[in-house]
Amino acid sequence: MPTASESNVIPNNDCENAGIQEDTPLVASKGTNDGNDDLEPDRNMDVREVNLQLSLPGMPEPLKLSVSNAEHSSLRYALCLLLVSTYERLMELRDYISDRPETCDRTCYSLQSVDGVRLDELVLIGKLQDIDNGAIIRLVDEEYNLRDVKIHLRRLRDLLTNFSRANAYTAHDNMSLTFLSGITEIDIEEEAIKKGSTKESQLDCRPPSYLIPENSSSAGVPLGPLYLDESYRDPLQCLKDLSTSGWNPPPPNRKLQGDLMYINVEVLEGDIYNITASINGFFVNKTKDHAFDPTPQSEFSLSHTLAGLLTKISPAFKKNFLLLQKVSLKTNPLELVPTPYQVFPWVVPRLDHSYDKQRAEDYSSCRVGYEEHLGGQLRDWNDDFQSAKEMPAETVQEKIERDRTIFRVNTDFVAVATKGAMAIVDGNVVAMNPTEPERLRLYIWNNIFFSFAVDCRDQYKQLGGDIAAYRAAGQDVHAIDFFQKLDADGLYTLETAIIDYCGRRIIAQSLIPGILNRSQENSVVYGSIDSGLTVAADEAFVEQLKKYSQLFRVRPIKVVDKSDQNIEIWSSIELKGILGYDRRRYIVDLIKTLPVDVNFMERDEDIRDEKTQKYFPLNHGHYLSRLRRELIEAFLAGRYMLYWRLVAIYSYTDREKQSQDKDEVDLHGTEALPEIPTGSYTPAEEINERGKNNSADENVSNDDENQNESAVQIEAKKKAAAAVGSYSSTELDIRFNPDLFTPNVKFSESERKILEKDKVIVNDAAKFLVESIIPRTIEELKNLTTPIDSNSFTDVLHQRGINIRYTGYIASLIADKPELTYVYKLCLMEMIARTAKRIFKELIKHTGFRVLSFAISHFLNCFLGSVSNPLPNIPNDLRQSKKKKNKKKHAKPHNVAQDKSDLTRWTSLSPEDLWEQLSSKITSYFGYTIPRIESDNIPGQYLAKLQRISVLRTFCIQTGVQIVLRDYAFDSKKVLTFKDDDIVNIVPRVKHLNPKALNYTETAFEIAQQRLQAGQIQEALDVLLEALAIFQQVYGPLHPDVFACFRSMARIHYSCDDPIQAICFQKKATIVSERLFGVDSQETIIAYVRIISTYRSIKVHLALYCHAAGQKCVALRLMYRARYLTCLVFGEDHPDMATIDSNIGLILFATENSQNAIKFLINALEIQQRYYGGDSINAAISHHLLAIIKSTTCDFRSAMHHEKQVFNIYNVKFGEKDDRTKESSEFLSRLTGQAVVMQKKINELTAGINQNQMGDLPTGIGHDNSQIAQFINMINGLQNLSPVTSSVPEN
Questions:
Q1: How far apart (Å, rounded) are the C-alpha atoms in residues 176 and 165?
Q2: 3 state DSSP class of 1246
Q3: Cβ atoms < 10 Å from Cβ of 94
Q4: Can you spell out the DSSP letters for 543-577?
Q5: DSSP for 847-886, written as a single string
């Protein structure tokens, strides 16, 4: 089974063409780092790459761990792992050993030197003695114990079932879906190298009927093609059954003879064998049926591995197991390695539930509830996390080890926390306080503390109760994540995750040492636990928080407790400081690290301007609406520019004041100064330095001048600081009051004056968001960024500091703008889906598991179906019972709602009630009223502008509902759209910390960008290769940062006319995207390209690279996939569809399928006219493409019509003397000539002239692949706009 090591990427072939050296070091040279010491290696270590040989038991020749000896492909990638780096630990070799078919089933062994000395696998290879090129390392089989046997069985099971799609559909073992290899059907890398292979030409590249624009339906594309048919196939079967025997455990006398476990195996031939796992290996015993005889059979000899023994027993196993290994070698390793976190698909096919004893045993042996509290077997998550953060980080290798340890601890914590939260909701964990109401119960499971996100101690009573507690959980995770990235010393935070499951939000946290042995009142030494009645301010915490208050943009505040004492704290009162038994200082409840959003807070005093008051404030029912950190940074950047501009102005006016009469100078007339001389003020660093140097040892000759200049600058800075609202009176220092407008927080009298400044600054920040950021974002959405689905739209807003609650306001601004129709639809979809999610969570929270699938299907029928009054389906045993004859006439019938209160809510739900709630809640929460359109069904009145399958997808992703993969009849008025068995599962949605390799993530892409701008392509590739190696060591092969490196390197190679290398890297990027984000996610359809700051399709990029390499059929298949996914997640009416259709049309034209090419290009033209206008450059390009293609079919009149449009647009945009206008005019003239000749020949034929007397008919306009490639680059933004004139023959 391939592992993480094999997914490291750089082709070891044709490196010179790609501009990459084969001996590229892991860490870039000093000259390419620009002083970034974080990227430099440990100078005390000899960092090099070595080829090692592995000596195996029973093999005469050692196995070479080298790329060149990889049997499966010459295109296997590695940076420094297969060509083993001395930078790595010896234990990394186990990954390579598990990759090789000769050793993939070995698990119990040690690594030894040639002299038989066992090597320490935790030591770096570079620190081992006598390790050099060609060194031999011996693999020595070791004795088993019971744990080793279980690991060995698990490994064999993984090898036999690794290719099962069922694991990916259920996210079992962190597997996830990818369909790239199924879409292409060939190895696009090998085909690109062969150039001219027949495999690619044999592919069917005709567009599916449902993707042809003229066949499009308002209901959208079918759902079935989302998953390829081949994905349902089971892997090759090697055994009928593999399970533990009922004779376990071994009796004491056999245990003393080395027996560890007994295993039952049924081979494909039908025979059943009883196998003994002993300390020396595996052998077949003589046990038959119910007769126990553990002695070995003489027919089959002992084997150290179970697979080796089965190979002797069963020829069918031997044959199929070898075939599996061959499939594994041909499969890209990125398709088989587990993801760091579980990735659940929102739709899954119907899969048969197979009989599997081993799976059943795993399920029955899973420890739940009290069994998890067995002493001595629990992991101390807090100690692991804090110890990892305290690891040394002086050298590069130490930093990598530290970051890798933190990341792995976090991924393990999230996995266990998710499992624990699900067990709690399922009722399998005993609460610490079982007598309390369910919502107030607390749990400890596997050393993790769990609680529900509700106001259990009235902590949030004044802030909004349960609603505030729900919001606080999310804000706390974001704040902790930000604090972790600061890499702060002296203060510690907890491992934290939030799990939304079955309508409940559960908070999972690691335990503070000693917290359970004392009350909360005695634990908290900083902050308040009673909403400000008592406030603690431990000096040690105060000193630590002072250091980080500037990074959090928080000013110190003075509050008054119930005893009227003034207490100064450097955070919100909600932040709590706890001193653990390990003497570490922990901070929790970081919910108010960002300033309040006054646009969503009603209060008596209001200092907003009239323009803002027309839409705001909106009341969300709580006081925890906060501005985003991205907005605060943008706001501070604006204040920074304003501050220094004012410093320059005030400095200039003060100097002028000293040389003129004071009465003639307007001190406040900043607008009266049209020009400020450059360099008229001293830089900030010099000002600060001069402000400090007031001692008597200053230079005497310049003393008066410097003092005078310093005084002017200091005074100017004071005025500028006051003007921009700085917390400091002498310099720029913008900070916010974290408890502003918080009920029951009593500030000291000394705070009265500064509180007014606090109110002004938060109002300015909110005003900056509404009047600057949102309008700017709307302008960017017209041309620069084009999100496709809910997640990508959310990312666009969040990256610019806009909260999702502003979606209604954005919708109100763009409702009447045709060029932003797609954004308006995204706003509607986001508001509807999020509001439906809130109603849905409240509904299922009170629904038992017995009827959960019935409740979900009924909700979906009311939400998206067209049946006017869908009747809920209730199990027969819960239906209303019939009246008995001996009952009184007026006796109430036995009603399920009376005995089963969990059914009351959902059975009474109707489409009218649901959409009335939705409309009302959207209006109150988002401040926008969804327009209703006449329709014969309730959902159709609100969803007329949206594609219901897209709304369904968004809803399922946000709620965790998994449905069956089939086509749903949303327009049916007689048959229910959703049935009970369409609901497959509810999966957890998890929010967690995201540890980053900060030393590299923040600098690698910036340095690479600088190299590219300087024309240093090789140096840019070196930096990206270095970053890629580090990212893979820290995160493994599947991570967004790894994906970004692949994508950037592919683009660089493509720009260097190296499509083969571009294909290699982009293929990796596409697989990683599918595995991490989902096969239909916005990251898979759209990739954010940092270099040109725009969105582009990953599959479109890969298609372009394949087309450049001559793989036209593969390129078309990838284009079809991109088009299908775009239609599925949004619909056909999207700006990016114009680019996709233009690409499809051009490549179809290159394959001489002009008829379909014209259909796609016409659709692209219609979309561009709709969004960019009929006189736009985009429309001109489409007109020109249509003119070229139609001219090849001798439709010269239509071609003339399109080219006339091109000429008119260019003439207006650029003028008649512009080269583009001239080229279009020349092309139009040639088309006109051809049209005249054609019409003349037609007239002659009509007049009955003999064909022998007629000249030749005009031929279509020729084209070649280079011209098509230029057009493809142009429409994808990879080449400057410049019309390419086709070769039109002269008349």
A1: 8
A2: helix
A3: 18
A4: HHHHHHHHHHTB--EEEE-TT--EEEESS-TT-EE
A5: --GGGHHHHHHHHHHHHH---SSPPPP--GGGSPPPPPTT
Buried b (16+ CB within 10 A) or exposed e, 396-414: bbebbbbbbbbbbbbbebb
44 pLDDT exceeds 50?
no
Higher pLDDT, 1286 or 1159: 1159
Token duo for residue 875: 């199990």
Q: Please, where are the H alpha helices in 1097-1176?
A: 1098-1108, 1112-1129, 1135-1150, 1154-1172
Give pLDDT tens digits for 396-444. 888 888 999 999 999 999 999 999 999 999 999 999 999 999 999 999 9
> Under 8 Å CB-to-CB from 1167, ≥6 apart: which residues?
1133, 1134, 1135, 1137, 1138, 1141
**pLDDT, tens digit (0-9, with 9 covering 90-100), for 1035-1044:** 999 999 999 8
Q: In sequence order, what are the beta bridge partners of 284?
A: 275
User: Is the peptide bond prior to 683 cis by the omega test (within 30 degrees of 0)?
Assistant: no
Q: Residues 741, 747, 752, 753: is their CA dihedral positive or negative?
A: negative
Task: State the DSSP H helix or E strand holding residue 524, giving kind and residue range, or none if neither.
Answer: strand 524-527
Task: Report helix, strand and coil shares of the chain as percent, to nearest 5.
Answer: 50, 10, 40
Alpha-carbon radius of gyration of the chain: 35
**Strand 239-244 with 259-267, pairing:** antiparallel
Give the DSSP per-residue string, 291-304.
B---SBPSSS--BS
Give SS3 for 979: coil
C-beta separation of 346 from 962 below 8 A: yes
End-to-end CA, the chain:
65
Which DSSP string do the residues of 347-381 spell out, in sequence order? EE--------HHHHHHHHH---GGGGG-TT----H
605: Cα within 13 Å, side-chain hemisphere: 7
How big is the CA angle at 404 (ends 403 and 410), to the nearest 5 degrees? 90
Nearest to 23 by CA among 109, 85, 95: 85
Q: What is the DSSP letter of 891?
A: P
Q: In what order do the strands lie in the sheet with 281-284?
A: 239-244, 259-267, 272-278, 281-284
The residue behind tokens 């196998």 is 275
Collapsing DSSP to helix, strand or coil, 978 comes out as coil
List, for residues 114-146, the tens digit of each pLDDT value: 777 888 777 776 666 666 666 778 888 999 999
Q: Tell me which amino acid residue 30 is.
A: K
What 3 state SS string does 1225-1236 have? HHHHHHHHHHHH
| Least confident stretch, 607-621, 819-833, 856-870, 1026-1040 | 607-621
Question: Hunting for tokens 């809640």 — which residue is that?
Answer: 921
Query: Token digits for 497?
Result: 């995750």
1065, 1064, 1058: which is closest to 1044 by C-alpha? 1065
Beta bridge partners of 986: 961
Query: What SS3 class is residue 337?
Result: coil
pLDDT of residue 226: 92
Spatial CA neighbour of 595 closest among 621, 619, 629, 618: 629
Task: Name the residue among 280, 291, 231, 240 with its Cα closest to residue 264.
Answer: 240
Which of 66-85 are b and which e, b meaning 16 or more Cβ less than 10 Å from the residue's Cβ? ebeebebeebbbbbbbbbbb
Core vs surface per residue 141-171: b (16+ CB within 10 A) or e: beebeeebbeebbebbbebbbbbbbbbbbbb
The length of the chain is 1291
